[in-house]
Amino acid sequence: MFGNEDKRRGLTEAKALLKYGEWGKWLEESVDFSQSRANKLMRIFKEYRDRQPSASNSDSDPNLRR
């Protein structure tokens, strides 16, 4: 699972660095799966990230402290 999370995070970060219109070409040259698959992986990463408590939230909520 850890490797997949890195892959999803990497795709999200790479897309953010590219200029508009370069995403498809970058995918063709850099990975061995489709743009559709890449978009699904990034969506999973964003949904997972959005569900994680932030550091500031865990500091203010005693139920989230370990």
Which stretches of 5+ consecutive residues score pLDDT under 50?
A: none
What structural category characterises the helix and strand content?
mainly alpha
Overall outline: globular
Mean pLDDT score, rounded? 79
Q: What Rg is obtained from the alpha carbons, in whole angstroms? A: 15 Å
Please provide a brief summary of the model.
The chain is an all-alpha fold.
What does this structure look like?
The structure is a single chain. By secondary structure, the chain is mainly α. The chain has four helices and no strands. It starts with a helix and ends in a 6-residue tail after the last helix.
Key traits:
single chain, 66 residues, mainly alpha, 4 helices
Secondary structure: elements and pairs:
Elements: H1 2-17, H2 23-30, H3 35-51, H4 55-60
Helix pairs in contact: 1-3
